Amino acid sequence: MPPLRWQACLFIALNAVVLSMLLFDAPVGASEAPAPVKHLGEMLTGFGDSAWLIYTSILLFFQGRAGYKLLKTARSKAQALYVSWIGAYLFVTVVFSGLLANLLKRAIGRARPEHFHDYGIFSFTPFSGHASFESFPSGHSTTVGAFFAAFALLFPRYRVAFIACAIWLAMTRVMVGAHYPSDVMAGLALGAWFSLLTAIVFARCGLLFKLAPDGWPLSKQLFPDIKKPGAL
């Protein structure tokens, strides 16, 4: 049922957040991860810092633009232009999904796991101005979700690996005690949805993607007919 693809994704995401909150948040808040698990989380959690992803996307954009100006062949120019638009796509998804996540977490004001014994898992103080009351959704997880969803849409052949990486890296926020599982699930879903919607906008502009009959964005092949027998 292709026309229901996005509805199914939204339904699964909402249920994953609610079930995580009801079943897993309290046990996580009441305990602390074992030292080796926490150490692993500390090693990996920096990947969700948006700063280096933003710089990388900017570098891709300008490198692609420079290549488009300097390269001679039409094929090389097309490849350079393709890289530059990937940089632009990643920049938009990472930056604006992160801004949205930061706005939401301040407006919702959920207490972080460090306050579990004082407030429980259903404590909300909107616009408190304190980082310890800005837990939902996870900003790091939003960045991770946006980044890997973008690559899953661009390179769907490897989408399973990208999804696995996103889950592992997002869950490092739980390992280090910074977020509840539902914060992470909400962040992943928010980032992924933002990448999907941005891909649809790019497709409508004729960039990187094309729209399937059901409205789902499909990655464009850079040279779709180059290996087809009899292609002109």
TrEMBL record:
Record-annotated Phosphatidic acid phosphatase type 2/haloperoxidase domain positions: 86-199
Name of this protein: Phosphatase PAP2 family protein
Transmembrane segments: 50-68, 80-104, 136-155, 160-180, 186-209
Cellular component, GO annotation: plasma membrane
Record-linked InterPro entries: PAP2/HPO, PAP2/HPO_sf
Record's bilayer topology term: Multi-pass membrane protein
GO molecular function, one term: hydrolase activity
